[in-house]
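Long-time lurker. I teach an intro course on protein structure, and each term I like to show students one example going from raw sequence to a predicted 3D structure in token notation. This year I'd like something fresh instead of my usual example. Would anyone be willing to generate the tokens for the chain below so I can use it in lecture? Attribution to the forum is fine with me.
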Amino acid sequence: MSKFTISNIVLTLLALLSFILEVVEFSYSWVVLILGLLVYVCVLICGVVNVRWQFFMPIICEIPNSEKEIFLSFDDGPQEQSEAVLDLLKKHEIKANFFCIGKHLEENPILAQRLFTEGHFVGNHSYLHEVKFPAKSVTNIIAELEKTNELIERLSGSKSEYFRPPFGVSNPNIAKAVTSLNMKCIGWTIRSFDTSDSKGSKALQKIKKELKSGDIVLLHDHSPHVLTILEGLLPFLKENNYKTQRIDIALRVNEKS
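-- Reply from a regular --
Happy to contribute to a lecture. Here you go:
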């Protein structure tokens, strides 16, 4: 049972309680109901925008392990700067995780193929990544995911099982679509906010300060300063004996153990 379902049950019980209080002529029954509604709305909003709450469905936000493995992930590619990101990862012999927009896979076939050829993990990040994506119907969300899954399968030869929601937003429709396709939803432990960092230094320090074994780090390969961040982060990982791993491989290992 999801936290969303539990919240709805609690709200229903609260409404019933308010009705009973009204029947017995309790003067503040309406106050109880209004306060309950306000709390419900606040919780709902937090559940929508915070993937780590796993409010509507299970979302994998970390992969605990004893090997000091962490998971670098990049959203929204492949785009022009993805080539430089791949060059840097190759130089440091790093395997990363890319949650790609389907349309970008179509528009950048050479870069898309390079992701697979160089051994990186590629997950589904919707086909269009529109601002209105969370407001779409279950049918339209499924269509986007299936279209991107087909592109990934065509390029890699294997089916895609993993999805990261655009903007990290989840809701009942997204949950239904993901569940119906038997996909796993991937979130993150550390959100670097690299796209809003004017120099990249704040994002780098945030990652260094918070990083621990099992963390999934969110970056964007189109971020203006992602190369600066990686140039500081990759040596830090090596100096502190962190290993980078593909999300799908780590999850399969966990399933077997």
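Some talking points for your students: The chain has two domains: 3-49, 59-256. The longest strand covers residues 69-75.
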